[in-house]
Amino acid sequence: MPNSSPDPAPVPIAVGVSSCLLGERVRYDGGHKHDRSITGCLGRLFRLVPVCPEVGCGLPTPREPMSLEGDPAAPRLVANMSRIDLTDRMLTWCARRVVDLEGENLCGFIFKKGSPSCGLYQVPIHDGGAVRNGAGLFATALTRRFPLMPVEEEGRLSDPGCREEFIQRVLDYRRERL
Ligand code: SF4
Considering the domain boundaries, does residue 148 fall inside one? Predict the structure, then answer.
């Protein structure tokens, strides 16, 4: 007798996203940065997996803003007013979280621009009197763990050409992993 049970629904492709871009109120000021070009178009195509490194590592919301300082090759994450050094706390959490994310089978990641935790490009690093550019601590940890994974910052995805290119890179990455 032929098997008449329907084919299982395809597993949606998972893409990680900085939580504040999905409208979660996790930012230092208690707000969010909901980006409808992500939750709309990309949210219909992919399963969006929220990640907030600052809340994840146990910091409260709202919280003191923080910045990157020191050697651009190994910057420190420091609270702006209290000068509390949060680097070890964040790096310990990042090391665990990127291992956990292997279980999510992520095929891409969208980061919040400019964040000392999530920024991918041109995050200011204060080094003495100079200001250099680098990446946030979580963005660095994730891209080191998954060097071939397609990654992007939120602002660029409002451009339809960039968004299409990102979607294609995610689909290609997924296909190569099947
Ligand atoms: Fe959290 Fe990253 Fe958004 Fe900051 S930028 S609130 S660390 S998800």
Answer: yes
